[in-house]
Amino acid sequence: MAEQRGTMKKAVFFDRDGVLVRSLVGDGKPYAARTIEEFEILPESGGVTRDLAEAGFPLLVFTNQPDVGNGLVERSVVEEMNRILQQTLPLTAVKVCYHSQTEGCACRKPKPGMLIEAAREFDLDLSQSYVVGDRKSDIEAGNAAGCFTIFIDRGYREQSPDDADKRVHSLAEARDFILALEDNAIE
Ligand SMILES: [Mg+2]
Ligand SMILES: [Zn+2]
């Protein structure tokens, strides 16, 4: 069980695409779904999020959706995807950066803006929280926020992070690692 000291809670933050939701891979690189038809929650996401929620973690998603800022997808389509995600999985919140790469916002990963904002909003202790991602920018954001970072290596043809606290090959493996670490911490 994730023991909660005081009122600050330890959370698990997930990247969306390639972690909870299927990424489309083209030329070895992952891309977000652009239509509701393409949007698919990965089969293992249900069980993994249920187990972590039962262990007492608030679960949040933090996701860059630059296709909106770049005019490639309507914001309403991404909102609909995230509504489906929240209906299907036990999530406390879905934080989204809709900005393009060129807008210089504080929320776009690798910046930790979404994590910091969520921590303030939901009274979360980032230093006790986990970040699970499949790209370098997820891990950099998590490290910048002081979280424990878990990289799911999906084998993309792009630079992978060298500073993740833990490297795994599936979402289930990330869950097992978190729950084992929590068990050890309490003994
Ligand atoms: Mg991703
Ligand atoms: Zn942003």
Describe the structure.
The protein is of the alpha/beta class and 187 residues long. The protein has a single domain (12-186), classed as Rossmann fold, CATH 3.40.50. 35% of the residues lie in helices and 17% in strands. It contains 6 helices and 8 strands. The chain has helices spanning 43-54, 66-69, 75-88, 113-122, 136-144, 171-186, and strands spanning 12-14, 24-26, 29-31, 59-64, 93-97, 130-133, 148-152, 166-168. The strands form 2 sheets. A 6-stranded parallel beta sheet has the order 5-4-1-6-7-8, sandwiched between helices. Helix 1 (43-54) packs parallel to helix 6. It is globular and about 50 Å long. The structure holds magnesium ion and zinc ion (ZN). Residues 97, 99, 105, 107-108 line the site of zinc ion. Magnesium ion binds at residues 15, 17-19, 30, 134-135.
Order of helices and strands: EEEHEHHEHEHEEH
CATH class: Alpha Beta
Described by strand count, sense and barrel closure, the largest sheet is: 6 strands, parallel
CATH level-4 homologous superfamily: HAD superfamily/HAD-like
CATH topology: Rossmann fold
How would you write the strand order of the largest sheet?
5-4-1-6-7-8
The helix count comes to 6
- The name of the CATH architecture is 3-Layer(aba) Sandwich
The share of residues in extended strands comes to 15-25%
Shape: globular
Bound molecules: magnesium ion, zinc ion
| Ends distance | 11 Å
Main structural class: alpha/beta
Total strands:
8
SSE arrangement:
Elements: E1 12-14, E2 24-26, E3 29-31, H1 43-54, E4 59-64, H2 66-69, H3 75-88, E5 93-97, H4 113-122, E6 130-133, H5 136-144, E7 148-152, E8 166-168, H6 171-186
Parallel strand pairs: 1-4, 1-6, 4-5, 6-7, 7-8
Antiparallel strand pairs: 2-3
Helix pairs in contact: 1-6
The structure holds magnesium ion and zinc ion.
Zinc ion binds at residues 97, 99, 105, 107-108.
